[in-house]
Each structure stands twice: as C-alpha cells, then as structure tokens.
Amino acid sequence: MKARHKRLGIVIVALAALGLATFLVLNALEGNLSYFFSPTEVADGKAPANHIFRLGGLVEAGSVTREEGSLTVNFVVTDMAKSITVAYSGILPDLFAEGQGVIAQGRLGPDNVFVAEEVLAKHDETYMPPEVAAALESAGKMGERHPGSKPL
Fold it and tell me: Domain containing 18: what range?
C-alpha cells in the first residue's frame, strides 16, 4: 500500500469515529432535554405526550388544595390566557405561593393533569423565571396580576 492510501484510510476511519461519537453524544442529550411550555401551548397540544417537559406560569389564586394525610398538592398554573391543573407529591419550596411565578417539571397525564416531579419557585420579591416572563409577555398579560397577589 502506498503512503497516500494509508493516509486516506486513516482519515476515513477518523471521520467515521468522529461521526459515531457525535451521534452518541446527541442521542444521550436528546433523552435529557426538557423543553419549556406555557399553559397555552400545553392546552393547544404543542407539548410532547410521553416526554418530560417544564410547565411555567403563575399559580392561580385560590387553586392550591392539599390531600389530607399525604404530601399530594394540586394547584393550577396559568399564563392568564389558559390554565393547566398540576398534581405534585412532595414538599413544595418555601417560596411557593399563590399568584407567584412557578416552573414545574414532569409529564402530562392521560386526564390532562400535569404530574410534576419537581416544582421550582421564585427566589425573591421581584424575580420571575425568564421563561415564565416571556410566556406571559407573549400572551399580552405581563402587567396583569392575580387578585390577592402581592404588588410588584
């Protein structure tokens, strides 16, 4: 074999190895990605059916209910246009409150109730997760507040 053919073989093998490595990395990342959706997008069917995603918006005032004898909490997340009921079993963050921004990560159940595995709440008086702020702004409801929520 000539040196030229050896170099060509090495380049082909290196490109094949690089392609395989790229495929494996992208395949691994695909399973770990969780996209953000607003309640309007979820209600319109844009959210994946059997994949984990994040749902964000404001906790609707008066919607938080707790099941006696368990850690299960139900509440409604809204972007002021549409609302989605969320069921979460666990301890909520200390800063979780009605009328405040929240992001829940989980899956949409068969009864269109979002089953959350994790709930994230804001961390100070003026903070709102960027995804939630963008969703509210796109719905044209950024300046509105829920009745009973704290003033800005």
Answer: 1-33
